[in-house]
Amino acid sequence: MLDSLVTSKTRVKLLLKFFSHSNSGYLRSLAKEFDESTNSVRVELNRLTDAGLLLAEDEGKTKVYRANHSHPFFSEIKGMVSKFLGLDELMEKIVKRMGNVEKAIIVGDYAQGLDSGTIDLVLVGRDLDLEYLDFIVNKTFEKINRQVRVQVLPELTDEIHGLLVYGK
Q: What CDD domains is this protein classified in (predicted)?
């Protein structure tokens, strides 16, 4: 969906990076991460900055980019990115039918804004319906063509860091 609306693959990667999580980055690191030329990344960073979607701040000699949370379309773009990744539907189904889900946290590559093709999810809760979870994971793969790996924990540990997508 997102890649059919936005024709530049580099721009899609930047939107995923900055709007799936509160990431920041600078030109050379983004070019290396995306395996793109610095020029193509620079062009797209300039376009997104000119549109007000990204903010550019100087940190020493380096210009660091991050999403503009005060942009009027920030929530909508974040929602589109979430739908593109299939996270919204996955979370809605899990929370409705799994039982007592306290928190859901995206960890791994997606938590860092990288579209690796595998979504790592940590569910925190007790007495969860693991049979239904297997069903949803398989259905999600069929629908969004992304592998989902889920780890279920009875309580949150300090070692778990990522993007909180459900709970407080």
A: HTH_ARSR
Q: Can you give the pTM of this predicted structure?
A: 0.56
pLDDT in tens, 30-84: 998 888 899 999 999 999 999 999 999 999 999 999 999 999 999 888 888 877 7
Query: Nearest 5 degrees, angle CA 126-CA 132-CA 134?
Result: 100
**Per-residue model confidence as pLDDT tens digits over 101-146:** 888 888 888 777 677 778 888 999 988 888 888 888 887 777 667 7
Q: Is 95 exposed, middle or buried (0-12, 13-18, 19+ CB in 10 A)?
A: middle
Q: Was domain 2-75 assigned CATH 1.10.10.10?
A: yes
Place of tokens 């920041």: 24
Q: Determine the Cα–Cα distance for residues 67 and 19; give it in Å rounded to an integer.
A: 7
